[in-house]
Structure formats: structure tokens, C-alpha cells
Design a protein that fits this description.
Rossmann fold; disordered N terminus; 23S rRNA (guanine(1835)-N(2))-methyltransferase activity; binds S-adenosylmethionine; single chain; 11 helices; alpha/beta; 2 domains; about 375 residues; DNA_methylase_N6_adenine_CS; seven-stranded mixed beta sheet
């Protein structure tokens, strides 16, 4: 059965859920919107499409559920390299009483021959390339691929990559500071998936693998470098690398303390996969778990001796310290009495104040022009 959605009827139906969307984790201190004009642009492209309920729709990069909520109940799979976005989508579908959608990571198998692909253009070119290389072999000759982004976030080479990886691509009119592109497969053999970046870790024999989208994937982060030069000494049985990225902090800690058990946690599936490859490739005998999660949700209280953390200072495109704050609060809960949280951050972010509030004090371990390494000890229970 072919379904044709009438423009006038569909626009309100497809967008009325937007005002109900919440960001995730809910943050009472901010009133930031959970969707933007790129989502609206993609929803409009749905209106002009003839949809077959039997054939899959693929959504790439939905952040908080703007696209998933509009498509709930149809044959839709939603891919995102973010555990937090997956939670956000589930949260918003539940709040609005909508059917769940299939949530996939970039590394899962995606549906074959989607009739329609709606993608948000990721800021990171490596993520876009990953999406496009994986998408091309799945496309049918009649698959329609829409990508949209906010003007300020669209990588310069996005349009060229769409043409190169998929085929003929049209740039649509700009609308509310967003832009969309529509592509079809050229039917040619797909380009291979670019290999993860791999580089030697300075001062070691280790090689670090970095999948697409991973933080500081081209070289060692300068904040991480300062923490690595000042790693904790002592006896640690259970160590958590919170926001592990490629796992460099846990890896270097494990090179000194190979007997400890490590948990490497990140919300990015590709970061977790990189961390796993790096531990397995460099220190294969170390006991380690690799976990995609939102901070330390669900971790056992009072169970860890040490948490290492180089916290993020933005969520999606928005600069915020609420994730860092959540990480510190979670670390406090998960540390046993006497356990330590070591963090590195930009000096101007004022993490001392936050840590002192939570732990009742913190020490400066090292500083340079830009960064500061801080240590906080959990002296009380709960
Ligand atoms: C500044 S990077 C640090 C990466 C790595 N530890 C390093 O030092 O190079 C922060 C990391 O936190 C992760 N992150 C962001 N939000 C998160 C969340 N809610 N839960 C877990 N990890 C998160 C990001 O994906 C990113 O890998």
C-alpha cells in the first residue's frame, strides 16, 4: 500500500510533538530547546515523500527524539553514536505515549534498502564519512536520502562528501538558518569505510586506535597529557575511566597498575569500541569492562577506589558544565570512603568550587597555562 501524506494535514501532525520534547538528562536549570530548525526541515521533507509502510525508514543522528517521535509506529530504525541520545529518545517517546522505535549504534547492522533516510549532518566530518560509507551499500535505486543541519554546524565538505559517497546531490533552499541536501545512489560500487585513525602514544610503545567521532581522535588531548604526567600513585583495586574516549587514561594507569580491575565508560559507542581496541591491543591481560552509559548510571555505590575523568564541557552543540557536574556527583556516590576522584579541566571552568562543595575540599595536583589537575578524596559515606 502506498501512503501519500498531504502537506497541509501532515505539517501540524508531524511537528506538534516538538513543543513537548525535553532534553536529556532533564536539567531544570536550562530552558534550552530539544529540537532545532534542521529537525523541522527534515520533518518537512517527510511531507513530500510517498511512504510505503512495509519498507524501512532510517534516521541518522536524531538527538532528543524530534524525528523519532514523528515516525514512531512506522517501520523506523534510529542510529546514533550516543547512549544519551538513545535514552533521550526513549524518554520522549514514553512521555508522549508513543511506540518505541528500533535504536541502533553506528556499529550495529542497519536495515537494507531503506525507502527514506533522514540524517542530521554531524559536526564531525569523520562521523559523516562513517555514516555515508556504511549507508551506500544499503541503498536501493529509489532510496531518498535527506541530510540537514544548522548553517553554523555544517562541515564545509559535507556536500562534496554526500556526492562522493552516495551520488547525485541537490542542495535545497536555506530555511530558518538550516540547510538540507537530498541525494540518491549513483549505483556505483561503494567507497570503503575509512580506517580508524591510529597513532603512537608519545613516550610509550603503545598504538592508539580512534574510530570516527572520538574526542581528540587525531592526537593526544592537551588536558589529558597534563593528567597523564601526574597520574595517581597508590593501591587501587577498582578504577573507573569516566568519559574514557579512546581509553588513554585507563590504559596508562593500567600500565602502572596492571593488577587492578578497570571500567571504561563513555556515552559514545565508537569511543567505547576504540577504548576496547586500545586496551586489547596494548595491554591484553588487564581485566577491563567497556561500558556505554550516561555517566555512572546504575553503578554500584561505594565500589570504586579511583575515578579518572577529563570531563566534557558541551553536550551536542551546546556548551554546558552540567555533564561534568553529573560526573562528579556520580563519582562521589560510586567511590568507597577514602576513594579518590582525579580530574583535569580548563582552569577557567572553576571545577575546584564544584569539587569542594561535593567532597568538602580538593587539592591542586598540577597546573599549566590552560589546565588544572585536581584530586578530591571521599572522606564521608553517602
Ligand atoms: C574531554 S573527553 C575525554 C576523553 C578521554 N578521557 C581523554 O582524556 O582523551 C570527554 C568524554 O566524555 C564523554 N561523555 C560526554 N557525555 C557523557 C556522558 N553523559 N556519559 C559518559 N560519557 C560522556 C565524551 O563522549 C568524551 O569521550
Amino acid at each position: 500500500m502506498q501512503l501519500y501524506i498531504c502537506w497541509k494535514l501532515a505539517v501540524p501532525a508531524l511537528t506538534h510533538h516538538l513543543s513537548l520534547l525535553e532534553r536529556y538528562p532533564p536539567n531544570p536549570q536550562d530552558d534550552l530547546q530539544a529540537w532545532d530548525s534542521a529537525d523541522e526541515y527534515l520533518l518537512q521533507s517527510l511531507v513530500a515523500s510517498q511512504l510505503d509502510p512495509q519498507r524501512p525508514i532510517l534516521v541518522l543522528g536524531d538527538q532528543f527524539g524530534a524525528l523519532s517521535c514523528a515516525l514512531a509506529g512506522s517501520h523506523v530504525s534510529v542510529v546514533n553514536d550516543s547512549y544519551v541520545s538513545h535514552k533521550a529518545i526513549e524518554h520522549n517517546l514514553n512521555r508522549q505515549g508513543l511506540a518505541q522505535v528500533q535504536l541502533l549504534s553506528p556499529l550495529d547492522d542497519w536495515p537494507q534498502q531503506p525507502q527514506l533516510v533522514l540524517g542530521r549532518l554531524p559536526k564531525q566530518l569523520s562521523m559523516l564519512e562513517f555514516y555515508l560509507a556504511k549507508l551506500k551499500p544499503l541503498l536501493a535505486p529509489d532510496s531518498l536520502v535527506f541530510f540537514a543541519g544548522r548553517d553554523r554546524d555544517i562541515p564545509e565538505r559535507a556536500e562534496a562528501l554526500l556526492s562522493r559517497y552516495l551520488g547525485p546531490t541537490d542542495r535545497l533552499l536555506g530555511w530558518k538558518k538550516a540547510r538540507a541536501f537530498v541525494s540518491r545512489s549513483d549505483g556505483k560500487a561503494p567507497l570503503p569505510q575509512p580506517a580508524p585513525l591510529s597513532w603512537p602514544l608519545e613516550g610509550t610503545d603503545y598504538q592508539l586506535v580512534n574510530h570516527a567521532n572520538v574526542f581528540s581522535r587525531q592526537s593526544l588531548d592537551i588536558g589529558a597529557r597534563l593528567l597523564l604526567a601526574n597520574l595517581p600513585q597508590g593501591r587501587f583495586d577498582r578504577v573507573i575511566d569516566l568519559g574514557c574516549g579512546n581509553g588513554v587514561l585507563a590504559l596508562m594507569m593500567a600500565s602502572q597498575y596492571p593488577e587492578a580491575r578497570y571500567q571504561l565508560v563513555d556515552e559514545s559507542y565508537l569511543a567505547v569500541a576504540s577504548a576496547k581496541a586500545n586496551m586489547a591491543g596494548n595491554l591484553p591481560t588487564v581485566a577491563a569492562d567497556f561500558i556505554a552509559n550516561n555517566c555512572l548510571d546504575g553503578f554500584e555505590r561505594a565500589s570504586a577506589d579511583l575515578v579518572l575523568c577529563n570531563p566534557p564541557f558541551h553536550q551536542q552543540q551546546v556548551v554546558t558544565d552540567h555533564i561534568a557536574w553529573q560526573m562528579f556527583k556520580d563519582a562521589f556516590k560510586v567511590l568507597r570512603q577514602g576513594g579518590q576522584l582525579w580530574i583535569v579541566g580548563n582552569r577557567h571552568l572553576g571545577y575546584q568550587i564544584k569539587l569542594s562543595k561535593l567532597f568538602g575540599g580538593c587539592q591542586v595536583v598540577a597546573t599549566d597555562r590552560k589546565f588544572i589537575v585536581l584530586k578530591a578524596i571521599k572522606r564521608r559515606t553517602s
